[in-house]
């Protein structure tokens, strides 16, 4: 590359990075707003979440097209190529997080508009806080190229899975004790499932950050092995 071309390529790489962070910020806001629809009955926020979801979709397409052009025109290698490939994969996970937030907002609005007895959703508030933190932390790890910080997100997904199972047991108990709560409990189970899926997508993105920095694919190798790779130790493909 000439010096001019190299500077232009670097600027375009930075544009991809900043656009992805912008997309992530929108998704993080969507999760909080969707939970406000559920917990605080702010049903008008469902429209805000839906509008943001359209913007997230637009950014996904725009950034992906930009990545394709950058690879075709510049044929990047090593770290630059890993960055572009990682963002391309992370775009899908981030867009799906936005889809799940939109689902939560729509379902919560429908529940409130239908009226009836309200079932406490303490576990769901806790899960939503956890997955929002996971999204924030994976964006931070990506921005700082920090694989160790990314590995904490992978570990946090285990806690989200535990919370999801606990909330499922709790809601099933509600249904057994009072059949009038069945419909509403089922809606809350679907909301809890959406939150758990957001955690899964955050974990996927964290794994891509580790790949971006070290070049090692840490999918399906277990949390402890992922943490070793994040620290720069040799990859050992064993489960926990």
UniProtKB/TrEMBL annotation:
Compartment annotation: Cytoplasm
SUPFAM superfamilies: PhoU-like
All residue ranges annotated as the PhoU domain in the record: 21-107, 124-209
Record InterPro entries: PhoU, PhoU-like_sf, PhoU_dom
Transmembrane parts of this sequence: none
Gene Ontology annotations for the cellular component aspect, listed alphabetically: cytoplasm
GO biological process: intracellular phosphate ion homeostasis; negative regulation of phosphate metabolic process; phosphate ion transport
Keyword Secreted found: no
A Pfam family hit: PhoU
Keywords recorded for this protein, A-Z: Cytoplasm, Phosphate transport, Transport
Domain of life: Bacteria
Function comment: Plays a role in the regulation of phosphate uptake.
Complexes and interactors: Homodimer.
NCBIfam families listed in its UniProt record: phoU_full
Protein family according to the UniProt entry: Belongs to the PhoU family.
Protein name: Phosphate-specific transport system accessory protein PhoU
Species of provenance: Neopusillimonas maritima
